[in-house]
Amino acid sequence: MSINSPAGEELSALIAAAGVNMAASGSIPAIRRVAIFGGTHGNELSGVFLVKHWLKHGGEIARPGVEVRPFITNPKAVEKCVRYIDTDLNRVFDSQSLSDDVGKLPYEIAQAQKINSLFGPKGSKDAYDVILDLHNTTAHMGATLILESSTDDFNIQMCKYIQKSMAPLPCAVLLIEQPGVKYETTRSIAKHPIGVEVGPQPQGVIRADILYIMKIVVQYALDFMQYFNEGIEFPPCSIEVYRVLEKIDYPRDDNGDLSAVIHPTLQDQDWKPLNPGDPMFIAMDGSITYYEGEETVYPTFVNEAAYYEKKQAFVKTEKVTLTAQSIHCNSV
Amino acid sequence: MSINSPAGEELSALIAAAGVNMAASGSIPAIRRVAIFGGTHGNELSGVFLVKHWLKHGGEIARPGVEVRPFITNPKAVEKCVRYIDTDLNRVFDSQSLSDDVGKLPYEIAQAQKINSLFGPKGSKDAYDVILDLHNTTAHMGATLILESSTDDFNIQMCKYIQKSMAPLPCAVLLIEQPGVKYETTRSIAKHPIGVEVGPQPQGVIRADILYIMKIVVQYALDFMQYFNEGIEFPPCSIEVYRVLEKIDYPRDDNGDLSAVIHPTLQDQDWKPLNPGDPMFIAMDGSITYYEGEETVYPTFVNEAAYYEKKQAFVKTEKVTLTAQSIHCNSV
């Protein structure tokens, strides 16, 4: 495959032109261990397919001096093509679940502890440097990178690099940092966790177009790490991200059943502005629920199948700018 | 809601213009009992939503002189938002399953027997006249009516009426009559069974656009039955249908895992011609599997999530024309 990505020389030229003060830049250890997780949700098939493929064809993701390990995180859920067996694996990497040893554990808790021992321990110096966790959504989000911290310069630089490489295809960055909305993800055991979310794709389906987008996101991420390891300095940068504010549930009746559905003017409009007074939901009698907030927000995960049970029709986000100082590898 | 449907007077004018020989027409009993099934597959949510809605708001589907009964056929699967609990409810209405009484039955077999006692017995004079069974697909099939017989004049006339009423929106008719491909559906207990399949919609998701299409298909079907009961004569007609020929599986490796995916030129192209030499699948190394048949066929159910486990990437169909003689109600 031929990818039109920024080569090292172009980046060096960019850096020279920017007149970066090398002394002020962030000095970061080389990236030596990277995991690519698929099947954290067993019915999100692009990541399952890619990880299974790379387990057989590791050359496609090999990078000099880096261990790149593809891994199916929830094999039982993959086998049954369901999101999870007992509980959502992508919500249980909190310290209590990771240390719980009383009696028979739910499958995903036991699996979380196994993953933590293989790729963590979470928060320790032994944890993997980077985990790319591959997900699909039924929402029209396109390629999306999910950050858990607004202050991780390495990850911000990686997002910037992937966005540039993807252009003119869009690649949104979602920041899930808000207490009460943030959750303890599978990838959170890494020093630099990144979620890769690509949609729209139904659960249990593999689409070639979505598969391709996920593949190139991973390859650009690995390219970035390789350039970084080779000593390329990445100049200070800023990126626009969508920061999660709160989740919005569907209107429901007394039984908890949906009493209205996503309005057609909101459906498939992830990342587009939702202005005060815009429709959000419509019921069978034609009645409309309007957005009554005072600020324009940017909905995403609009009509994601897995979030009906989580009482979430979409999440409201706001646009914010994150900045990163220049970074370079301190162990070249 | 305002629907632009052929009113009785227009139909009478049509009939007069056609100079139909009333004596030659088919005389059929009035339609007195109609069931609308939702949730035969618990994660196909348009039908679930509509049936639950109509259970509360029966006036929308009421027709004079007809019992119209909305019914959730697989409530446990609906509750869990899965296709089925033990086995596919839409495949077990064979005589053996319906009469089996040995020991503890799988949930769907027990449910099939219950449904057969409520709306059947299958093949008897006591069976419901019409069952509309509501389904969704992840394939880009639009509105689709599924017939199980090429000789049911009443159903062919109903399809013709719905197609005319839907225009200029398309409404395909799929004929599943081929031995080896046909299966014993939930709706098969009715004298006139019709499957209503609308997509694309992911499993576990309700989209307003798909919901609307399903709603109007049901309403046009009920309108047709009402006009028929009122004595309107429907002149001889023909419709073009897609007759199922055989199913085609994905290329798979030794483990049974997919080794290739639907080619982008076939994805979302349900009902479009697949000509000899056209691509069907593409693997990660770029290798393509081409269609090597000698005749042009018309794929449908392309990349339906539920059919991965049934070893079916799509079904090949051929276009055939069905004809029906004129029909009128013999009990006005």
Automatic annotation (TrEMBL), chains A, B:
One Pfam family named in its UniProt record: AstE_AspA_hybrid
Cofactor(s) demanded: Zn(2+)
A GO term from the CC aspect: nucleus
Residue ranges of every copy of the Succinylglutamate desuccinylase/Aspartoacylase catalytic domain listed in the record: 31-224
Binding site for substrate: N90, R91, Y183, E184, T185, T186, R187
Domain AstE/AspA barrel-sandwich hybrid: 238-319
Subcellular location: Cytoplasm; Nucleus
Coiled-coil zones: none
Active site as annotated: E197
Keyword DNA-binding carried by entry: no
The UniProt record lists the keyword ATP-binding: no
EC number annotated for this UniProt entry: 3.5.1.15
Sites where the protein binds N-acetyl-L-aspartate: R83, E197, Y307
Molecular function as annotated in GO: aspartoacylase activity; hydrolase activity, acting on ester bonds; metal ion binding
Broad class of enzyme this protein falls into: hydrolase
Entry's family note: Belongs to the AspA/AstE family. Aspartoacylase subfamily.
Record's protein name: Aspartoacylase
Origin species: Eleutherodactylus coqui
